[in-house]
From TrEMBL:
Gene3D superfamilies: Vaccinia Virus protein VP39
Source species of the chain: Cannabis sativa
Skewed-composition ranges (Polar residues): 13-22
Composition-biased stretches (Low complexity): 23-35
Residues in Methyltransferase type domain copies: 154-197
Gene label: LOC115701586
Alphabetical list of InterPro entries matching this protein: Methyltransf_11, SAM-dependent_MTases_sf
Protein name: Methyltransferase type 11 domain-containing protein
GO molecular function, one term: S-adenosylmethionine-dependent methyltransferase activity
Region (Disordered): 13-53
């Protein structure tokens, strides 16, 4: 089969879709990579920039989900809704506006029909990943997207040092192999590239891993920091948080998602009628760059 590349830095052996209908590229592209040249093989000594996992953070029990069936089946139908409120989205967009530059090439992991990037900025390239092609095809900020279940296969079929930034928005709680995913993120980031992981207290309860479900907001922040620490080469994680002025009892009830009302909303991926807390954990590959 003929190899087709979207960009010299971006060969892919999974299905990739062009999300911009006015472009002349075919809607579905495939490229094949020989196993000896596949940069996602972390066991290969030639891939010196591959992320090295120093330790496992989660036990087998902590990786389990209430709903053990395929995530592909769970996300088979599109959900054209936002799972966090406007305050969260505004804070996230401001963070992206501050940390991401127009010349960046960006990978939006576990994305959907919105990426929350600032609308006034045109980035060099934005590639989306997710589980529902219909949702991703409606995302106006993606140049291309691909579909992959990261709980079944954690390898990104992309070359080393392909992206300036990787984003993961309100989805880290569903990763059953976060150490491997974070190692792959490290590999595809350019030196100095940034990984921004953002989340609130919302979740599809039955699809979140046990370590996340059983935790509280503080412990979830610490968990994401440990994911970064498990991979050699990430800088010390930075935490940004913005919590609403709610009573302690209300925050505790919503944060744990244990009241029947909050739990049922969690199953639907919807927000309860109060402000969502904002958390972002950020680290860089090797060093944090300084821009003039």
């Amino acid at each position: 089969m003929m190899n087709i590349r979207l960009n010299p830095k971006f060969p892919m052996s999974t299905s990739i879709f062009n999300s911009k209908p006015n472009k002349t590229l075919p809607s579905k592209l495939k490229s094949t990579l020989s196993s000896e040249n596949n940069p996602t093989d972390q066991s290969s000594s030639s891939s010196s920039s591959a992320g090295k996992i120093k330790r496992l953070v989660l036990s087998q029990e902590e990786r389990t989900k209430i709903n053990p069936y395929s995530d592909r089946d769970f996300y088979a139908y599109p959900r054209f809704v936002t799972h966090v409120d406007d305050g969260f989205i505004s804070t996230l967009t401001d963070l992206y506006r501050e940390r991401l530059r127009p010349e960046f090439e960006i990978l939006d992991l576990m994305s959907s029909w919105v990426s929350h990037l600032p609308k006034e900025v045109k980035y060099k390239r934005v590639v989306g990943h997710g589980l529902n092609a219909e949702e991703l095809s409606k995302n106006p900020q993606l140049d291309y997207f691909f579909v992959k279940d990261l709980n079944e296969d954690q390898k990104f079929e992309m070359e080393d040092s392909s992206f300036d930034a990787v984003l993961c928005t309100v989805s880290v709680q569903y990763l059953q192999q976060p150490e491997k995913v974070f190692a792959e993120v490290f590999r595809v980031l350019k030196p100095g590239g940034v990984f921004i992981v953002s989340f609130s207290n919302r979740m599809f309860y039955e699809k979140a891993v046990s370590a996340w479900r059983d935790g509280i907001e503080y412990s979830r922040v610490q968990l994401v920091k440990q994911y970064f620490q498990s991979v050699e080469g990430f800088t010390e994680a930075e935490v940004i948080k913005k919590t609403p002025g709610a009573s302690a009892s209300a925050e505790a009830a919503q944060g744990d998602n244990k009241l029947p009302f909050g739990w049922s909303l969690g199953l639907l991926g919807l927000a309860a009628p109060s402000s969502d807390p904002f958390y972002a954990v950020i680290a860089y590959r090797n060093f944090k760059p300084v821009y003039e």
